[in-house]
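User: I want to check something. If I give you two sequences, will you return the structure for each one separately, not as a complex?

Assistant: Yes, each is folded on its own. Here is the first sequence with its structure:
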Amino acid sequence: MPPLATRWRRLLARVIDYVLIIEIPFNVLLWIYERIHPAAGYVWSSLLGVIFWLVYIGYDGYMLTTRGRTFGKQWMKIRVGMLDDGSLPAGRPGWLRAATYGLPGVLADAGWALWAINVLPALFPSAVWVLWLINVLWLLWDKPYAQALHDKVAKTVVVSAQ
């Protein structure tokens, strides 16, 4: 198996993907919608966040199961492989990894929408973001493969593709 990807390359790959798939389209659509409906507010932006997190899960799952890497990972010269043999995480493992990573984003944004209409306390979406943070930070102390929790669930590892 190739050497493990560095934490910084992994972080930059996620940032690239997040900006391309969520942040830019989300803010453009939100800006357009707020010009049409200026009083749309927090519920609309939270629901739009849910949609974009679902799109991110679809993007991540598709790219991992077909190529083993997203655009961000490609630019950072890293890829995702199966822990046991480094092969492509085709099928269930790639989708499981993507869902485990993105589902907290869906739940948190849905929670903020429900908070805005007084259905849920703000503690719920905040707690979900804490769980997401634990997931991604897990690789900092995991030995020997530096796996985040979404890697552990899918039995994958991120390696250098150089």
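And separately, the second sequence with its own structure:
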Amino acid sequence: MFSKFMTKLLNHPDVKPLLSSEHFSVDGTLIEAWAWHKSFQPKDGSGGDHNGANFHGEKRKNETHASVTDPDSRLYRKGQGKEARLCYMGHVTMENRNGLGVAGSVTHATGMSERRASEDMLKAKAKEAGCRITVGEDKAYDTADHVAKLRAMNVTPMLPSTISAIRVDAKARSMAARPGIPATGCRKRAGR
């Protein structure tokens, strides 16, 4: 239902001219599951009589435990020092001209789900554009594997500088330095 609505909205004659087909941003967020920590119990049924009521000091992992009320949810921590939650991950691709969401998905919360969802959504956008596109992503996406996959899909990643070097295509940096030449290599289309 949602994808039908979004397809109709994004193809509406009043909305279509507002959308960029070459410059995007991708991000993810946690979507809290409708499950309590108490429902996160050992998969082998060895939880005892306490039904998850006293789990302090217990090692709980997605490999060995599952929620009895929402078995698809995963225990996930967004960052160092943050609490672990039973959740899913939501992902969105936004075009950069007006910040409108143009693609989205919900996945299991894993350490790789943000990058894999990004790759899936951007592959479709690059195919639609028919030329190299650019994407802005945060430091969670800054892995050599992810950057290589994006480049192979005709996507130029624009990642923030981290302790390691910034992973932006050298071609994109040199093109951006020349006025009047789009960094994506796409030619201006009529009526844009």
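Because they were folded independently, the notes below concern the second chain alone. Strands lie at 23-32, 40-42, 65-67, 74-76, 85-95, 101-108, 133-136, 155-158. The radius of gyration is 21 Å.
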